[in-house]
Write a structure and sequence with these properties.
The chain is 76% helix and 0% strand. α8 packs antiparallel against α11. The radius of gyration is 23 Å and the shape is globular. It folds into 2 domains: 51 residues, no CATH class; 217 residues, Orthogonal Bundle (MetI-like fold), CATH 1.10.3720.
Length: 275
């Protein structure tokens, strides 16, 4: 296959993959901003009339303003917990090369494959016994810990490429102790990977429903945005337009984070690959 044909083939594949994400997003936006009459006439058709009533109604009915604040608090706590712990853990794995460290690393990565429901229910029972359910700080900490295996793996992979053995040995010869190497070398060097972790953990936590429904159930005052959106529909009536409007509101912070962090994401996944 010629280079030109290969390029066109890749472009076509990327276009198809993009359509798989773009079309549902367009349907979501169209559903959220259409009038009720227009939607009832043709639920899957193109919008012919536009309104913000669905967004205003969902914002008022589900208390999306307060839920947005709760989601931001939970996501920020999760990012702080995950990023700080993962950075220290990845550095520890980088400077320890023995069998114990390698075994712990493999075990940590393997733990990421455990379904969330397998450990979330026992955690909920323990938190309920300690009267820590419906606590947004605790929910943020649990969300941050849940993302630790991936975060440690990503930062450790970055350290293995960027924080070379020669660099560590040179710092040690200069008299730098472990904490000094961590603070003055590892942390500044890890900024691209750290930014990637923060962006991904924020998006995952902000859009989570299962953990929020388990740890923040029963108290609308601490509902996250995704959890508050579920209150717009009942068993008797499904308010698809209201839920689409709530989903559209929840997408705005996520898109903003990706727009700000896109360069850091590329640098975090690609940095050190040529070293």
């Amino acid at each position: 296959m010629k280079a030109g044909s290969t390029s066109k083939f890749r472009t076509g594949i990327m276009a198809l993959i993009s359509l798989a994400f773009i079309l549902p997003l367009l349907f979501l936006i169209g559903t959220a901003i259409r009038t009720r009459q227009d939607y009832m006439m043709s639920p899957g058709g193109l919008p012919r009339s536009f309104t913000l009533d669905n967004i205003v109604g969902a914002w008022t009915q589900a208390g999306l303003g307060q839920a947005l604040v709760v989601s931001l608090i939970v996501a920020v706590i999760a990012c702080i917990v995950c990023a700080s712990t993962a950075l220290a853990g990845a550095f520890w794995f980088r400077i320890h090369q023995g069998r114990v460290a390698r075994g712990l690393n493999v075990l940590l990565v393997a733990s990421y494959a455990i379904p969330m429901v397998a450990w979330l229910i026992p955690v909920f029972v323990m938190l309920a016994n300690a009267r820590l359910v419906n606590n947004i700080v605790v929910a943020g900490i649990i969300a941050g810990v849940a993302s630790l295996p991936f975060a440690i793996y990503l930062i450790h992979t970055f350290f293995r490429q960027a924080l070379t053995t020669e660099l560590l040995e040179a710092a040690a010869l200069d008299g730098a102790r472990v904490l000094k190497i961590f603070w003055y070398i590892a942390i500044p060097m890890s900024r691209p990977a750290l930014a990637s972790v923060v962006a991904l953990v924020f998006v995952w936590t902000f859009g989570d429903l299962l953990m929020a429904a388990t740890l923040l159930q029963g108290n609308p005052q601490v509902y996250t945005l995704t959890l508050a959106a579920t209150t717009l529909s009942t068993r008797e009536e499904v308010n698809l337009q209201g839920q689409a409007a709530a989903a559209l509101v929840s997408l705005i912070p996520v898109l903003l984070v990706f727009m700000v962090a896109q360069r850091s994401l590329a640098a975090g996944f690609g940095a050190g690959s040529g070293k």
